[in-house]
Amino acid sequence: MTTAADIMHPDAQWVPATESLDRVAQRMRDLGVGAMPVSDPGDNERMCGIITDRDIVVGCIAAGHDPSHVTAGDMCQGTPRWIRSDADVDDVLREMEGNQIRRLPVINQDKRLVGVISEADLAHHLSDAQLAQFVGRVYA
């Protein structure tokens, strides 16, 4: 059985909800990623959302806001989605397809972030038929 841990990109990093978007963008650049999970302001590192480079550009800059005065937490909307590291790849696909999301944080049994699954990760591990079905459902 292929699990989320088998296909995820390991060593994902949090960005605190209090971090300004200009700093978030710099971290994304330095890490070579287009999205980062956002942790709540408390000490327990619980996910309160995920922020993408597109969120920063469209939701902040294009809306005329100053990214040095808007925080990652300000941009988080909706219920954060995640999956456990021991979940089957079919569960990963259901979660991503059902919520039409392209990146899915992965947590361990202690609810700590251990990785992120992206479309690129799926492309490396799915059959062509599975990948076509995923794309059809997420981009529908």
Which structural class do you get from the secondary structure elements?
Answer: alpha/beta
**Radius of gyration, CA atoms, in whole angstroms:** 15 Å
| Strand and helix order | HEEHEEHHEHEEHH
The total of beta strands comes to 7
Q: Within the largest sheet, what's the order of strands? A: 1-7-6-5
Number of helices, where a helix is a run of at least 4 consecutive DSSP H or I residues:
7
Uncertain spans, ≥5 residues at pLDDT below 50?
none
- Assign a percent range to the helix content: 40-55%
Task: Output the CATH topology.
Answer: CBS-domain
Total domain units: 1
CATH class: Alpha Beta
Percent strand equals 15-25%
Overall pLDDT score: 89
Query: What is the assigned CATH homologous superfamily?
Result: CBS-domain
The gross shape turns out to be globular
Distance between the termini: 28 Å
- Which architecture name does CATH use? Roll
Largest sheet: number of strands, sense, barrel closure: 4 strands, mixed
Textual characterization of the structure:
There is one protein chain. This protein has 140 residues and is α/β, with parallel strands linked by helices. The chain contains seven helices and seven strands, in the order αββαββααβαββαα. It has a four-stranded mixed β-sheet. It is globular. The mean pLDDT is 89.
